[in-house]
Amino acid sequence: MKKEISSGAEKAEELTRKTSKKTTTTKKSSPAKSKTTTVKSKTTKPAKKAKAVKSEKKVSEKKLAKQKAREQKKLEAAKIKAEKKQRRLEKRLEAKQKRLDRIAAFKEKAAERREKRRERRDMLKHESKEARIQRKADERQARVEARIAKRQAAAAEKQAKREHRLKVRAEKRADRKERQKSPGFGGWLAAVIALGVTSLALGTMLTFGWLNMNGMQAEYAGIHTQSLYELNSIVDNLDTNLSKARVSNSSDEQVRILTDIAIESEMAEVVLERMPVETQLTQNMTSFVNKMGDSAQSMLFAIARGDKLSNSQKASIEYMYEMNTEMKRILNELCANCTEKDMIAAMKGKSGGLLDTSFGDLQNHNIETPKEINDGPFAENIKKVSPKNLEALEEINATKAEELAREYFEDYGLTDARCTGETVAQQLECYNIMLQTRDGEMMAQLSKKGGKVVMFDSYKDCSSKNFSIERCIDIAEDFLDELGFDDMEPVWTSENGTTCNLNFAYEQDGVIVYSDMIKVKVCEERGIVTGMEGLSYVLNHTTRCLDEAKITKSEAAEKLNPAFESDGSRLTVIPTDDGEALAYEFFGTYGGNRYYIYIDAMTGNEIEMFTVIGTAQGKALM
Length: 622
What we know:
By secondary structure, the chain is of the alpha+beta class. The protein has helices at 7-126, 129-179, 185-247, 251-272, 279-304, 311-337, 340-347, 354-364, 398-408, 469-482, 535-540, 553-557; strands at residues 414-425, 428-437, 440-447, 453-458, 488-496, 499-508, 511-523, 528-533, 565-576, 579-590, 593-600, 606-615, 618-621. The longest helix is centred in the N-terminal third of the chain and has 120 residues, at 7-126.
């Protein structure tokens, strides 16, 4: 029985058969096809291979060239990089060497400075008074010669520039004349005649002027020589009167002698001002004769009150006699050797002449103020001690000192501040700072320890009075506050023309410490501080442990003369020969004169007394 198959199945079987047939046919025909392909490929392969080899050669050559170029660039870059690295290394090594050289030079200079300071300390330690005076004289002379050489060099440079300008002008004029038409014989003749007449006239004028100038110089030299002889005569008379005052014990005779000394001192001061030498060479001598006259007047006042001359006044006479004897010796030698030529040289300001040398000797000798005259209470007290308040402070260098000076004196309109050297004052090492302003020069000294201002001075004239003493005190207090000096109290005021001189002392717990004193000078025209001296403060200042007073102020007042009229009192610390003492200060009048009296706060004894006198420089104490 024939199996029945659905049409769908039949279709599937038929489709399967067709597919298998196609597959078989394909398999049979494939070998031929592959053969054809193989033959075909064998026919075309050599040509393609040749082209490929050729192209590969071109590509490889380009790659090689590029590769060589890249390698060359890399080599050059590496070389440049190595050279730069080498240069950087050399620069670093050079900079390092320079730095090491600077450090070595700095250390060497520091060692030299330390050695110089050590040598200077040793020298000052073993130096005699005469050697110190001679050394200071040599240093002062060297500074004077340096300043003169500087002025001469500047003048020579100025003259050279002027001559160069004149030479250039003459060359230009000659060049212009050459370019112009040459003149004829008549022109040359006229020019020669005119030149001859002009030369004759000019020669006559110059000759007359030279003769006239020489005559004037000789006349002035004669006047100054007469002044020199007058000064010598006055000093001789002072020597005679001082020698008499040393031994005189009669009040009447003392009055006559002291009156002559006072008058002759004033005459000597007037004559000194006329001498044709720099003021700095007569400064000490002028101050000495001025204060000598003041001492004579104060002794006259004491005798007029019926008092005898005290031991200190007699000692002052001995001191003045010794100083005047030295002045007499030098002036006698000067008068014996001085010629008109020497006087004319001094008039022209030439240094190193006979007058400069002689007056320089007078300046360098220890001619000072009579020792009992002070500007204020304990104004001359400077203890030779180490600065207590500076021991823990850091030592500054010259550059730092200049920076501090600019800060301290900023209100003065500084244009420059430079360190000009070092100095030693009472065991205190200081930097000398020259300050330049629009109005002139100023000078200050700053301590190497801590950079404290020890001294300040400016060269400003004061010709009128625009500020009162009270306002000057305020100005001085502000100035000291700016410099870092706190708790300072004014203890003395004196006017000298248009200058107000003030003394400030440190105040601790309401007690005035006279050992820590600063002097200030205020210009009453401008209302500015023009001078300050604080060596006593810098050397002595420290915080003190003050003892309690064993007697009261009223008990101390009972120790005073009943006729003494006290205007006020205060507790003070005053310097003594043994150190310091706590004392009550009483100030007032007795018999028309003003006094300062000090009563020991422990024992009640009178330990110090000053009397106020009038001088040409204002008030002073004796």
